[in-house]
């Protein structure tokens, strides 16, 4: 697998690490990137709200997924929902070197939050999510994989 990926921050990040990740994210702690440049650019609004200058970091990701512990969720399904629920709740989950799949963004998170709180059944949440096209995220949780597979290309300030 070889692709250009993006990470938006308030910093240029030449050498990313997994240590500075927040806990309780969709796929747990790790360095998050996306293949969708437009999605990364839209994330810059959250950085601007904090009064900071957003920076789009651009990388080349090269990995042979047969050599690592890799997981891909192709759509919002029961397995994805259970995994995200466990990660966001801080429960132990199977750890992967790289996990990729849909984001629990604002639109999706409303549904996921209703499910987490018990105000929506899993079946109802899955039916609602079935009509949502996922935004895409790749979470690299292994520092060794990050060091060996992700190459910084460039960064640009976003307006």
| End-to-end Cα distance | 31 Å
Class inferred from helices and paired strands: alpha+beta
Q: Looking across the biggest beta sheet, what order are the strands in?
A: 2-6-5-4
Please state the average pLDDT score.
93
Give a structural overview.
- This protein has 159 residues and is α+β, with helices and mostly antiparallel strands.
- Helix content is 32%, strand content 25%.
- It has five helices and seven strands.
- It has helices spanning 37-49, 78-89, 106-116, 122-129, 143-149; strands spanning 2-9, 31-33, 55-62, 70-72, 98-102, 136-140, 150-157.
- The strands form two sheets. The chain has a four-stranded mixed β-sheet with strand order 2-6-5-4. A three-stranded antiparallel β-sheet has the order 1-3-7.
- β4, α2 and β5 form a beta-alpha-beta unit.
- α3 runs antiparallel to α4.
- The two termini are 31 Å apart.
- The model has no long low-confidence stretch (mean pLDDT 93).
């Amino acid at each position: 697998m070889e692709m250009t990926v993006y990470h938006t921050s308030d910093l240029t990040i030449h050498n990313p690490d997994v240590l500075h990740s927040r806990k309780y994210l969709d796929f747990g702690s790790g360095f998050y990137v996306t293949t969708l440049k437009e999605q990364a650019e839209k994330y810059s609004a959250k950085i601007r709200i904090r009064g900071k200058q957003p920076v789009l970091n651009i990388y080349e990701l090269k990995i042979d997924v047969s050599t690592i512990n890799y997981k891909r969720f192709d759509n919002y399904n029961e397995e994805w929902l259970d995994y995200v629920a466990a990660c966001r709740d801080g429960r132990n989950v199977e750890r992967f070197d790289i996990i990729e799949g849909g984001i629990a963004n604002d639109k999706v998170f409303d549904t996921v939050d209703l499910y987490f709180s018990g105000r929506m059944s899993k079946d109802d949440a899955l039916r609602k999510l079935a009509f949502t096209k996922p935004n895409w995220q790749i979470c690299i949780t292994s520092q060794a994989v990050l060091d060996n597979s992700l190459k910084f290309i460039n960064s640009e300030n976003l307006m």
